[in-house]
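Entry 14: structure prediction run for Arginine utilization regulatory protein RocR. Input pasted below.
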Amino acid sequence: MKPMADFDTLLYLQTIANHIQDAVYVINKQGDELFFNNKIERFEPSQRQHMLDELRSVFLTGKPSFDKYTKYITVDRREVHMLSTIIPIEKHGEIVAVCSINKNITEMTNLLNKIYKLQEQLHNYCQSSANLQNGTTYTFDCLIGRSPLMSAVINKAKKAACSPAPILLTGETGTGKEIFAQSIHNYGPANSQPFVALNCAAIPETLLESMIFGTTKGAFTGAENKPGLLEQAGRGTLFLDEINSMSLVLQAKMLRILEEKKFRRLGSNQEEPMNCRIISSSNVDCHNLLAENKMREDFFYRVAVVNLHIPPLRERQQDILLLARYFISKFNKAYGKQITRLSTDLEETLQNYSWPGNVRELCHVLENAVNFFDDNEATLTAAYLPDYFHKQSLIPMHTVEAATAQNQTLPQTLEGIERQLIIRALAASKGNITKAALALGIHRQNLQVRLKKLGITKNVQFVVK
Ligand SMILES: Nc1ncnc2c1ncn2[C@@H]1O[C@H](COP(=O)(O)OP(=O)(O)OP(=O)(O)O)[C@@H](O)[C@H]1O
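Run finished. Output tokens:
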């Protein structure tokens, strides 16, 4: 190809550069302007000076910088948001010029901020209007998530809300089962009636029974005439959270009540009608419980007339950043911070992580990051994530190639993966073995055996870099 004359090259370059949206600026070692396009003319003197300083520092270090975020206040008090990339240009191994490419992201930032504000207003509105003295806080409008999987389950849940059939919500810990239970209640015809929730895993077996059915005076030592949750729920909803922890004996009693629609307070002969709807949840796979004879089959089919499965966060990648931005805007307000951007590395790390603790883990990780955020910055980066994120990125364990490249045997590879998953689950549960075991879908004792075998201590640090 015939080489272009210098003048022609410059003309072509200038024409192209004048027709792109970014401002381009090139200087030589002496600080003389070698090249710039027409977008630079819109820069104010202070902004131009700042850019020159940045270019000079790249001359000194020789290191390029990519997508560096800067916020300017113009003389007429407007905020300008910029992303700048500065690259040294070398000739025969020596830096002869430095080029700066500046993207004005003001419009996009303003739009994003508007979206966050609207999202927050909507959420606050939902929280205040949903608290209709019925014991709930959430409606479907408060659920953040636009992925196809989430939209499908919301649509199913809305349909189920309109029928009185018992619903079983399944899904890993932190996926939002309780939010779904409340939203279903508020979407249904009995939304003016009470919503009563009971965590079956948190209450001892003997107490659980009296809490659900209520007691009569003298039923046992110290027993009083007290309505149970079945009565308190009236014509509303009784939400039995973590139903997987319910004993077989109590399952049998609940089954009878669900079939007969009648119950008796403990120590009473008088039958009361059961008018409420039962929504229950389980964070372990009920089919495993059935196989292990820990759940009665007849009880399962009775409570799971409608089974809604909430997908884990790792299966709805599109929701991760949406939720992240929502939580950042929430914690900005709570902690008086001004985070306006998430860095590309943070976005990628959040999207590539497997989130064993799901939305709850994402929420905690970001609350932690916002807390430690340096007030002089505007961009939240991956450096603010807990330590275990950085460790996992060193070991690309999801790829078969990585294990092959390290000449690992199958048992070595599997042990590495097992170790990583356990460490992450423990870090997410802040060392709580029961919660970590639940997240991993194994029994507590099973996790303890594995911890011993792998020599992992339960106190995995939740440290911010
Ligand atoms: N789609 C969502 N939008 C906004 N917040 C969410 C969403 N899903 C979950 N959360 C938040 O994540 C946290 C965990 O949700 P929730 O308690 O409903 O999970 P869960 O599935 O019931 O967990 P567990 O099985 O451990 O009881 C809550 O703070 C909740 O507000």
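Notes: Confidence is low (pLDDT under 50) at residues 393-399, 461-465. Will compare against the previous run tomorrow.
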